[in-house]
Amino acid sequence: MTFKTKESRLLLVLGAFFVANAILSEFIGVKIFSVEGTLGIKKFDINLFSVPNLSFNMSAGVLTWPIIFIMTDIINEYFGVKQVRFLSVLTCVLIGFAFIVVGLAMKLQPSDFWVTQQVDGQQINMVVAFDAIFGQGMWIIVGSITAFLIGQMVDVLIFHRIKKFTGERALWLRATGSTLVSQLIDSFVVIFIAFYLNPNYHWSWQMVAAIGLVGYTYKFIIAIAMTPILYLVHGIIDGYLGKDLAHRMIKMAGRG
To answer: Whole-model pTM?
Structure first.
């Protein structure tokens, strides 16, 4: 098969960005950053469910999630629920494969000269650094993949339920609405599996609820802020496809 048609090339590009950003999110997600510190503002001191001193400490994986939100909704809009489900399952398989490869890489015997390196004037044990960055725990991996898959399935379902009522109007409502609901589920599922069920952490339900709610608040704000970008991408794709082809694809996608 060759990608000769505009539709096939578009799906290839969208799917590639979707998969690449999901995998990137898993590996950069090991870094936790301060949203307030990055923005140069005073840290919030939030108290939720008797959990004090909470602030917006987020996984760096949130850098790519807005792109995944947009790719999900755009693929849903033009190609339908089956394509999003297929790409979501494929992405989970590829994330699992990536972690298997990383696990094998961690087992390789390092060369003697590579073990200790000078980085910015400091002696770094590269084996420890490599394992610390890439060696995420099994509970976190399972939690992340499970939350991603459930979130995606909920997203496509709600997207098309809303579309049945709005037709081709109100893209913002079905796109943002489906993202807000799916990310609500995603935010709590990953923490519940990775830190509540994980016997190594013993998090209380209050901690899960508090951390999950803070994380979801951040995702809620970002999802709303990305709405103009969604319309911009939608307009670019309509211009690439042409109005007639774009309309036919959206109509066909709405039939499932």
So the answer is: 0.87
